[in-house]
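Final report, closing paragraph on structural work. Over the funding period we assembled a curated collection of sequence-structure pairs, and we close with a single example.
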Amino acid sequence: MAYKYIDNYREQGARKKLVEELRKKGIEDEAVLKAIGKVTRHFFFDETFWNQAYKDIAFPIGEGQTISQPYTVAYQTELLHIKKGDKVLEIGTGCGYQTCVLMEVGAKVYSIERQEKLYERTRLLLPRMGYKANFFLGDGSKGIASHAPYNKIIVTAGAPTVPEILLSQLNIGGTLVIPVGDENSQKMVTILKTGEHDYEKHVLDTFRFVPLVGERAW
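Its predicted structure, as stored:
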């Protein structure tokens, strides 16, 4: 994690190049691209690795976790179709990069992380960057029922199945985006809640996430 909060022309230029790269890869939502172009991703890296921050790659952040590839962050965010003021539950805070992107597109974020060291680090870092989310430490596979229902739910780790408890925490008309598969690869799944017990499911592209660990997952 960076200790010096410096954002010079070099970093700003690198973000612009990253945005154009994501556009070429198929990201079309201008609000999402604008968010990627604004969030200072290098702040999540040790200063030694700033030259890696705006490559379209995942990168280790400790505790066996990674900061997600920017394309993956943009892809999931685009699928959520966030409207300003949407209440969004994020399962897997990690370093907080996805959290910042969600907030930049107008979401009110409730984010839960099971790794205490990551939780503490992110809870302190994001306010210093100007982002005020609602952070929770716990088992994300069970969601956060005390603050439900949510307009949108995003899961940033691979699950073996879709946890029913997360669907129960969605508003009618709400969307869940979750990677589902085995520990080696997952299909991105979107589920639209059309009624109290009615859902519309779409299975999309293949990704590889770290496993979702918890009572309702691995």
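Residues 9-24 form the longest helix (16 residues). The chain has a mean pLDDT of 93. We thank the funder for supporting this effort.
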